[in-house]
Design brief:
Layout: H1 2-13, E1 26-31, E2 38-40, E3 47-49, H2 53-58, E4 68-73, H3 84-89
Parallel strand pairs: 1-4
Antiparallel strand pairs: 2-3
Length: about 100
């Protein structure tokens, strides 16, 4: 959880608010599932998805005071299974 808080703080510090509208900055959290959102299944010993990005954001209610948070669930895989090829497969570019 400490890693998540540090990451969120970094994102908030690098995002600026719109002075013209007086709105809080908009911060997008890209969720990939994985290590932060997993728990160990006691029966199998395997890591399994346990919480969503929304659950993690709800665990830090103070975020709503400093930013408008939006979540983009990109995938839900263990970080040890993430490869560059797999990450690229989540992005589709149409240049025509």
């Amino acid at each position: 959880m400490k890693y998540l808080l540090n990451l969120l703080l970094l994102l908030l510090l690098t995002t600026t608010s719109s002075a013209a509208t007086g709105e809080l900055p908009l911060v997008w959290i890209v969720s990939t599932g994985g290590t932060i959102a997993e728990r160990i299944n006691p029966k199998t010993g395997a890591a399994v998805p346990a919480v969503s990005a929304a659950d993690l954001i709800k665990a830090v209610p103070e975020l709503a005071k400093v930013a408008r948070i939006k979540i983009f669930p990109l995938c839900n895989i263990d970080s040890s299974h993430m490869t560059v090829e797999k990450l690229k497969s989540y992005f589709v570019y149409d240049i025509n």
